[in-house]
Write a structure and sequence with these properties.
Number of domains: 1
Distance between the termini: 42 Å
Order of helices and strands: HEEHEEHHEEE
Oligomer: single chain
Largest sheet: 4 strands, mixed
Length: 118
């Protein structure tokens, strides 16, 4: 199992990919600013319905932004549980994947492709 986890992490580090995800807010957002996000980072969910059901921790679901996340060097629960966010970012990670939720450090890696008013 440990070998599989190591291989998966290596795959995530080497594979640049675009992930479609969602963000709920009480205002439409065109450009994300980590200074305005929880813990100084930006949070997204791959499950739009989780935001609508109020299960994502989103501030609101009045507006749901569809975004494309450009992720290259991703870590997960292991680092998130043991380290501060700043430590993770300083180690060169651009994102954290927690089940189907994403933490993104750099707003340049977030492209808004749609805004839905619910």
């Amino acid at each position: 199992m440990k070998k599989l986890l190591t291989e998966w992490r290596q795959f995530l580090k080497e594979e640049k990919r675009v992930v479609t995800a969602y963000h709920g807010s009480n205002v439409p957002i065109k450009v994300f600013d980590p200074k305005l996000g929880a813990q100084g980072v930006m949070w997204f969910a791959e499950d739009k319905d989780k935001i609508k059901r109020g299960e994502s921790g989103a501030n609101s679901s009045k507006y749901i932004m569809t975004v494309e996340l450009d992720v290259e060097n991703t870590t997960g629960w292991d680092d998130y549980d043991k380290k501060f966010l700043k430590q993770i970012e300083d180690e060169g990670f651009d994102s954290i994947l927690l089940d189907d939720d994403w933490i993104i450090f750099d707003p340049a890696r977030v492209k808004v492709v749609g805004v839905e008013e619910t």
